[in-house]
Structure formats: structure tokens, C-alpha cells
Amino acid sequence: MALTGSLGTFHHPGVSRVDYKPLDMDRVLTALLARLWHHGMPSKIRRSRTLEVEVFVKLFQDNPEVFDGFERETTSRWISTHLLDLVNRGRADEAVAGPRPLHGFTYRFRNSRKSRPYGADEQLYEMLTVDEGALKGLREFFFSDVDRATGMITPGRGTDVETQALLHLVELAGGQMQDRADTGRPRTPHPPLCAEPAQLLCQDVMRLLYHQDHMPRTVLVDHLKTLFAFHLALYHLRMVKLLPAAVANGTVPAACRKGHTGRTAADCCPHQVRLFLDVDGNPGTPAAALAEHSADIWYRRIPRFIQATYQVKKLDDFAVHRATKTTAAGRAGDAKYSTVEGALRLLGTSHRQERDAFFLQRATRVRDEEDELPTELKRVTQLGLDPFQEYTEMLMHYRGRYYRSQFVKCLDSMLLKHRPGALIAQPRGKGSTGAEGSARRFVLDARLLEVLLQVSLLRAAGDGSGDLATSPMRVDEFLALLRDRYGLYIDRLPDGDGFSGAHLDDQAALRANSAAFLNRLREIGYYRDMSDAYLTQTITPRYAIGTGARTGATA
After folding, report:
1. Of 110, 159, 424, 476, which has fewest CB within 10 angstroms of its CB?
2. Residue pLDDT, tens place only, 149-171
3. H helical segments located in 160-301
């Protein structure tokens, strides 16, 4: 049976703006650029045709005064491999999603039907609004060559070839399209259930932007995409843990709403993400087995998260129903969504009679659409649950498996599975049960490690100016930072989240994982052996940034 009308609706923007579809971070960043330019609203582009590879090649060939010496075949290959993001690359149905997001105005050249961010751009923007400095820094970086008042573009002297080409395309094709804010989809801010993930994202973005004068633009953009995916994944993993607890308790902890700004154990978020990572990256090792166990714990929590999301959304439907009834009495009844906390308050005993009547009617509608109830639902109706619980169990029976599958695919894409910067791995192929591959396990890809190093090795300069500067850091300090700030465990097991202390066999696996971590640092050029002394195991910054910055070369 297909749930009709509003019965099967699932998403609530107070939990996440993401539509739980597989994400591509090029397309997410491209859509975010439009929101940066239009102050939070998406763009509405009007142009005469869909942009294909040949359209871009023709723009180059028809303007030799700008693109001098661009031979057709070479230009076509360069555009396809370096300048454009293609859907189904190399297949018969290959199509252009848009240019790579190297400059702010690349969103004007996207084909919206092929470049869907599925709400991840909105989720990122709302998280970034916690600190206006992060939004300002991103605008200045991506639109550094644009006059905000006039829209005129003046490429800087250090602009790379790809960005120069995109800027010229914007100037040449600017009169052939119209770009304006889509006012039909205004911002609808919702207070975050936990403010800490957004605060961490803003701090890391600002620290990464400190490197814009020290690394190629293409590299920094790739690092930003990795960082955005990483924080989206951490946010949703935290929601997997927080939302069911909030529904069970009927409220969100006050400390979560404030953002856990303190450093004491009492102020640590009870729903913090804790992941054990396999650094070596080879399946079948003891460390890989621990990382598989860590991933299994988190993915087993997803069905309860799906049910909790359904419960919040249906309570929101109940809130809208109540508001519609009381509009005539002078209350605001035109809001489409209530806050999550507002919805949870309707679980109170004072609303029980009205709540039971509302959900009994909906549960009856579901039963009436079936000639005969499935066996599983017959058992549910015999448990003596209240109408709200019975109704959400019905929804989980019909749609729970589908939304769990969609959320798993979305979470895998946020964790960049099978991509550079991955935080999770799963061997390809079919297992004995027909499911995809073997067990997932949390890993630490070299690109993600490099991004985390770059934001972590920037610390207060110490001159009282408030500016940041690079300085070396001991390996044990960095491992502690990964644990405390991001919940990433390498040299020890998490306290909870499926672990209850390291046994004798686990100690050997942890030592091997720590040795693999040192090898990974050597591979990417951040660590050199000075001696066997623990205090001299130092991570050296790659770039010298800020007053009094040190790379550690003379340590």
C-alpha cells in the first residue's frame, strides 16, 4: 500500500534540510555559492538553452581575442576533464552538471536538473550563519574579483588558468542569462538541536581560509569540499544519537542548544560522535575489526533515528492542525513547520486527549486503505499502544525500510565512501547474502587528514592580536585534539558507543594503528623522525602563516 496525501511525509527542516539522497560535493558547493551571493536564498537562472560541452567549446572558439591559441580538440578535452563537472562521465548519457566551483559565479552555468544539492547547500548555509565571519570569508574568497555593487569582474594577477577561463565565460555569456534570488523559497531559520556542530564548522572554515594566499585555489576548493562533507557527516551522526533521546525525554538538553562552549567534562555533549578509525586502511587487521565494530554500532542506530524523525514530523503535523483550528482566535496558524522543541512539547499529558483523537483518525485511515492488515501490523494493534505510537509504527512498517536505505546512501556520500577524503570504507562487490560488499569500517584518508592538520596547526599567535599563526604540535597533542574536538579515536578506544575498554588483544591493535598513523603523517610530509623520545615526535606545518609562524624545520 502507498500512503496517500500527507500520511507518509517524513522530513522536518528542524532536524535536517537534506533530502537524504546521495550527494556530490561539487554540486553542493555550486548551489551554496548561489546562496552566498543572494544572502541565503537560492538563485533563479533564466537562459535560452541547456549548456552542453560543445556550448562551452564554442564560447572559447568564438572569442579568440580572449582565448588565443585554444585549439579545438585540446580545448574540448581540457574543458571535459578539468573545467566541468559531468554526470555519468564516460557513458552514453553523459551530461554537464556545471563548471567546477572554482569561482562564485560558476553557479550561473549549472544545469539545475543535473546539479541537485538535495538541500545540503541550505543545511550548510544555515550552519554557517552561526558566525558571520565564516560567511564573509567565503564570500570574499569566491567573489574576490567581483564588485558587489556593479557586478563588474576584475581578475587578480594571481588567478589560476581555470578560474580565469570561468571569469571570461561569465563576462562573455553574462548578457545571455538572468540571475536573481528565488524569493519564492525564502529562508526559514530553525534553532539547531545542538549548536556545537555549526560552531566547529565555522571555526574550521575560517582557519582553512587562512591558507588562501599559500596554496593553489583549486587545492583549497577541494579542501573546502572535504571539510564541508566531513562536518555534514558529523552533524547527521550526532542527530542519529540526539534525536531519539530528545523524543524519549520530550525535550532537548539546554546545554546542547547553547553549544557546549566549556572545556569541562560536565559540559561535554552527551551525544558527541565517537568513532574509531582504521588508519592503515587494509581490511582483515585487528584495527580494521575494531573500526568495523564502531561503524556497525552507528549504522544500527539509524532505524531508531528514522522513527524519531517520523515522530517529530507527525507531531509537527499535529501542531499545524491545532494552529489552523485556533487561527480564528488570533493565533499564528500559517506557519508550515514548528520547531522541534515545539513539536516535542505536544507529547505532554495536557495534550493527550487531543493528540489521541488526531492520531486515531490517521491510524484509522491507514487501516481503511488495506483490505486486510499485514501480520506485522496486526501484532502492533494488539500491543495496546496509544494512537500516536501505533500510527508511527505503521509508518515504519510501510516506509521505514525505504527511508533507512536512502539515509544510508546519503550518509555514505557525506562520509565520501570510495572518494578522496573518505571517513568510511567498504570493499566493493557482493557478499554471501547478496548485500553490497562486506562490512563498513571507519577510516582516515590522507586528504581528510591533511585538511584536519591544516586547520589544527593554526593556533592563537600569542601576541595578543587575536590572529592565528602556524606552529608545530606534538603527535600526542594532535591525537588528543582529534578525540576532543571531532570524536575521532586512533590510539585508544572510545569510552562508550559500543566499546567498554581495551582488552589485551586490543592493545596490540592500538599500537599498530598508532604506528600506521605516524607512517601516514610521513607520507603526506607533516612528520619527520627526530628521535625515539616521545616529546620530540612533532608534526610540522607545511605553510608558515601569521606573525611568528614556525614550520618546525629547526626544532
Report:
1. 476
2. 666 666 665 566 667 777 777 66
3. 161-173, 196-209, 217-249, 254-258, 286-300
221-249 confidence digits (pLDDT tens): 999 999 999 999 999 999 999 999 999 99
In contact, 138 and 36? CB cutoff 8 Å: yes
Separation of alpha carbons 510 and 499, rounded Å: 14
3-state class (DSSP) for residue 460? strand
Is 50 exceeded by the pLDDT of residue 464?
Answer: yes
Alpha-carbon distance of 153 to 291, in angstroms, equals 49
Residue 81: what are its φ and ψ, rounded to 5°? Answer: -95, -30
Cell 523524543 sits on residue: 247
All cell numbers assigned to 330: 488570533
Which residues fall within 8 angstroms of residue 68, CB to CB, at 6 or more apart? none
d(C-alpha 450, C-alpha 334), whole Å: 48
In contact, 335 and 320? CB cutoff 8 Å: yes
Residues 124-143 have a mean pLDDT of: 93
Residue-wise pLDDT for 286-313, tens only, equals 999 999 999 999 999 999 999 999 999 9
3-state SS, residue 539: strand
User: Pairing between strand 177-181 and 43-47?
Assistant: antiparallel
* Number of C-beta neighbours around residue 190 at 10 A: 17
Nearest alpha carbon to residue 47 among 176, 182, 235: 176
Position 96 pLDDT exceeds 90: no
Q: What is the structure's pLDDT at 432?
A: 39
CA neighbor of 407 nearest in space, from 89, 11, 47, 114: 11
Confidence of residue 465 (pLDDT cuts 50, 70, 90): low
Q: How far apart are CA 43 and CA 178, in angstroms?
A: 10
Half-sphere exposure in the Cβ direction for 121 (13 Å, CA): 27
Cα distances (angstroms) measured from residue 490 to each of 417, 422, 478, 515 = 19, 15, 11, 10
